[in-house]
Structure formats: C-alpha cells, structure tokens
Amino acid sequence: MNLYIVHKPGRMIAMITISPGHWREGSGAKDLIDEVVEARRVVARVVEILKIQGVSVTQVQDDESTSQLKNLSFLVRQHNKTRRKVDVSVHFNAIGGRIQQGIGTEVLFYDAVTLATAMSKAISHASGLKNRGAKQRKELTFLNATTMPAIMIELCFVNSVADVNCYKQHFEAICRAIATTLADFIG
C-alpha cells in the first residue's frame, strides 16, 4: 500500500484527495494505452501542479489489491481517512473494439454536478476532446461510499485513436485544467 501525502509547508489550503483508479497495470482498460499507467501519470502531474499552487493534496495509490472489490474498498477507506473537501478518481474509458474517431471526455458524479460539469468542460477546452459532460452514477462504489463530494474523471477512451492522440498531444494542458478546476472548486 502506498499513501502519499503531499503538501506545501506553511499556509494550508483545503485538501483534495486524489487517486488513480485500479491497482496494477492491466487491471483497467487497455488498448492503445493502459488506463492504470496513464491514470497514475496524470495524478502525479496534477499533484505536482497543485503543490506548486500551494494546495494541500493527498495522493492515494493502490499497489497491492488483487481484485476490484479489494481495490474499491482500499481506495474508499483511504480517501475517507483524509481531511479534504473533495475526492477525485482518475480513469480512462473504453468501448468494444478499436475505433478511429474521437469519443471524448466525461466526468461521473454522485451529487457533485457543478464540479463534474466544470471539470468535463475544462478538460475538453484544454485538449479538444469532445465534451461528453457530467453524468450522474449513483451505483458506483467510489462515488457513493466516499463521504465528501466526489468525481470520477473518465479522461478519454483508450481504444479511440483520435482520443489517445489528443490526450498525448495535450497531456500538460489537461493536467493543468484538472488542477485549476480543483483549486477553484475548493477556493
């Protein structure tokens, strides 16, 4: 188990807890890119940007689970242990088979519709990915079991050639958009 706590010394701003979804390479969606590898890369960069902005952030990462059930239990438990205003889980999406055209980005939420809407719009604007918008998903464990407002970012589709190219080309802008939107949300 890795639990990273990252913050800038001195003035503490409200906390964000963020984690990449899944627990090991190949345990998430995989095609042109691997969801686990890329989600960890995004989370690491977003944490760096937030740290530079002076935002207190906790990064949770599961390196030990052996099943989806154990992974979800671990992530929810670790998120709920932290002092924060928002929970964020970073994922990548997939549909059956490889496709050429772009599908886009979406952000899932339980009750954090304002943040989810702003996040989906910010990622789309920063990257050119189609904005699929905010989607309420009350049945998802991460969203309904964390105790603070929570979102799951589905950054792009791992089997869309256009999405993956867009993601790779605009990686830094996407990470900055995520960090800025979160910092704005917590004030």
Summarize the structure.
By secondary structure, the protein is of the alpha/beta class. The protein has helices at residues 35-52, 68-81, 113-127, 141-145, 161-169, 171-186; strands at 2-6, 16-20, 57-61, 86-93, 105-109, 131-136, 150-157.
How would you describe this structure in keywords?
alpha/beta, single chain, Aminopeptidase, about 190 residues, disordered N terminus, 7-stranded mixed β-sheet, 6 helices
What does this structure look like?
- This protein is of the alpha/beta class and 187 residues long.
- The chain has a single domain (2-186), classed as 3-Layer(aba) Sandwich (Aminopeptidase).
- Helices cover 41% and strands 22% of the residues.
- The chain contains six helices and seven strands, in the order ββαβαββαβαβαα.
- A seven-stranded mixed sheet has the order 1-3-2-4-7-5-6, with helices on both faces.
- Helix 3 (113-127) links the parallel strand 5 and strand 6 (131-136).
- The chain is globular.
- The chain starts with a strand and ends with a helix.
- Residues 1-13 have low confidence and may be disordered.
